[in-house]
């Protein structure tokens, strides 16, 4: 049987009239898609190597390059699509699961785009954020329902540990190993300047980043990579990762090529080994077991750090969240199924889990019904794309949001979904020193700070437009949302009225 041949998905188009044969594209493409042909003194291209990362396009001084989606086609069919056919050929050839990266490209409903935001008119004046104070600061952690005073009337209730954020946005967990050191440092520097937090992910924390501790969330995942007492004490909070939106129900995976040098030392595993964290925590099979770990981590850090439990958005999410709230955790992070990943089986990413919008709304409603909403803060993540999504998430009940893909895009990512290959031409999802050096941590920080500053200003403008002057007043305020093009069932779950009502 002839070898399966799959026509390349992308074609490299070179404008020969503009190309000066400077060979910059050859130097910039770690996938070796460009080459110089000495016989003709011209550049050649191998389309099959191209992952559409846009690096050569952006760096070509003559603007001579573009990448186009191939128009080569199979016989059209709504059922057996190009993807369905090529996936079969790939798996018949390899015998393995199809690995991919970043969030699902599938055409599932994006409920954010079906939720319209309110604005004041006449009877409830709007607020001008340029001239009047707007509070975007949030405190994440358990809140007391009652306070106690001593004989002299002073409050004597001891507050639970909190994370303070200047704006309700955090950088979500992305491990050192899946990301380069320079990408991690960009996130750390930006978090410090913005007064927010970034998250170490499950790969431990490089010792050179310990001084960003007050702006760092350290993660404890099922693999326990890089976890030791100093690490637990280094961060502002500890996150127990039970699940991830892009791959609910399975563990983490860092390909062996990325486990080298400082990554292997920080993770405390040998170089060149696959870093596979187990699907479950082997000591957690119930909420009671989770509670044991929550209190073990509190005990290890003298009850000074809030504990976050991160779970993927799945079918019975509200019941699970209720259990998490009763486990003693201070914060629950819910990750929707459109969230990104550094590496995941495509079949899991594209088919398992539920959207963050529905998960968030049902969790907030359930915790309120049970009278325990104040005992835990909610962070929502899994495809927050802009400041309007942040406003919608808070109105649906989140205290704050996690962003990851948006942060990578700010640092230069062009969403080629090839992070798992380890040859990110933008220096973000790679450990190859010549590629890592392409991302300057100061420039990465500057772009991240710009992004969050812009979003914060837009959030203030939208809140002002609603006549609201604090995130606290927006939280769970579903009257500020109206649905459009949704079924009654969807509206019921989201807890919003239809536009026009
Ligand atoms: S992989 Fe990136 S750098 Fe290489 S040819 Fe394609 S777009 Fe250009
Ligand atoms: S981080 Fe790099 S490899 Fe991953 S999607 Fe972005 S550009 Fe591609």
Beta-strand percentage range = 5-15%
Q: Would you tell me the overall average pLDDT?
A: 95
Number of structural units classed as domains: 2
Structural class: alpha/beta
Question: Any idea what the CATH superfamily of the largest domain is called?
Answer: Aldolase class I
Write the CATH architecture name of the largest domain.
Alpha-Beta Barrel
* Ends distance: 63 Å
**Annotated CATH topology of the largest domain:** TIM Barrel
The portion of residues assigned to helices is 25-40%
The total of beta strands comes to 21
Protein described:
The protein contains 16 helices and 21 strands. With 501 residues, it is of the alpha/beta class. The chain has 2 domains: 87 residues, Alpha-Beta Plaits (2-Layer Sandwich); 318 residues, TIM Barrel (Alpha-Beta Barrel), CATH 3.20.20. The chain has an 8-stranded parallel beta sheet. A 3-stranded mixed beta sheet has the order 6-20-21, with helices on one face. Helix 4 packs across helix 14, helix 8 crosses helix 10 and helix 11 crosses helix 14. One iron/sulfur cluster (SF4) binds next to loops.
